[in-house]
Amino acid sequence: MRLIALQSYEVQLKSYAHQLERLIAQSAGKPTNINQYIYWFSFDVMGQFAFSKPFDMLIGKKWHHAVQMLRAGLALVGPLSPTPWLVRLAVDFPVVSVVRDFQKMEAWCADQMDERIEVSHYLISWSKKHDRIEKDKNTLYGDAIALIVAGSDTAAHTLIYLLYHLARKREHLSKLQKELATIDSIENLRALQSLPYLNGLINETLRLHPPVPTGGLRETPAEALLVSKYDLSLGPGETGARVVEDMVDQFTASPGQLELVFSERGE
């Protein structure tokens, strides 16, 4: 998503970041399975971008049924991606439950897009302008699914691995916290863009752990982290090995579980 488009959602993005921070604050000082928090955050944000309403997972503290169906369906897409004709057969003859789950997710996305058709939106603006809403419906449905998958899974994957490295190598965390202290607010997107160490950490995380192992390159904007307020470390008995060793490629990479301890920093 281009920066100018991202800026139009800045208020909503900050709102979800605050919801994520509140969840972290509630478990401060205790081992926390950070994976689900990060996934809830990324899917809530992309739900807002795609459909102008979140999945409300951060508030509800539970997975949305549509996201559960999507992730179940993607578990089949990853292993079969080298043989796309098998994916096509599986879709045409949905005898496997995960395929039916993915089709339910497709139907849910189509319903959400139908609700959004009458509202100006980046996904439908061209079709509205050229009076092609009906002709382009299938394309719009596909765009909605692609946006949810590409925006949510990839962002969550990158944030989890970034937190993993910061927890293991505390010297990088300390240096990042010092850099964040040089700007007026960590909610200032333009200021975050100018921070070389933050952007270097993000780019290095993407290099070491590509979110789409079987896909191509992409441009990723800087993400604001809450490390200016919290110190983080690996939880008791957590080595970080699972996040790498248990990773699965389900079209987008899905990291293994990671338990972190967030400790609020003193002023």
Structural features, described:
The structure is a single chain. This protein has 13 helices and five strands. Helix 2 runs antiparallel to helix 3, helix 3 runs antiparallel to helix 9 (137-168) and helix 7 packs across helix 9 (137-168). The longest helix has 32 residues, at 137-168. It has a three-stranded antiparallel beta sheet. A two-stranded antiparallel sheet has the order 3-4. It is globular. With 267 residues, it is mostly helical. It has helices at residues 3-7, 10-26, 34-51, 57-60, 65-80, 84-92, 97-116, 125-129, 137-168, 170-180, 189-193, 196-208, 241-245; strands spanning 31-33, 230-234, 248-250, 252-254, 259-264.
How is the secondary structure organized here?
Elements lengths: L2 H5 L2 H17 L4 E3 H18 L5 H4 L4 H16 L3 H9 L4 H20 L8 H5 L7 H32 L1 H11 L8 H5 L2 H13 L21 E5 L6 H5 L2 E3 L1 E3 L4 E6 L3
Antiparallel strand pairs: 1-5, 2-5, 3-4
Mean pLDDT: 77
Helix content: 55-70%
Q: Biggest β-sheet: count, sense, barrel?
A: 3 strands, antiparallel
Distance between the termini: 35 Å
What is the number of helices?
13
Order of helices and strands: HHEHHHHHHHHHHEHEEE
Tally of DSSP β-strands = 5
Strand-residue proportion: 5-15%
Shape descriptor reads: globular
Contiguous runs where pLDDT drops below 50 for at least 5 residues: 220-225
C-alpha Rg, in Å?
19 Å
Q: Class by helix and strand content?
A: mainly alpha
Q: Reading side by side through the largest sheet, how are the strands ordered?
A: 1-5-2
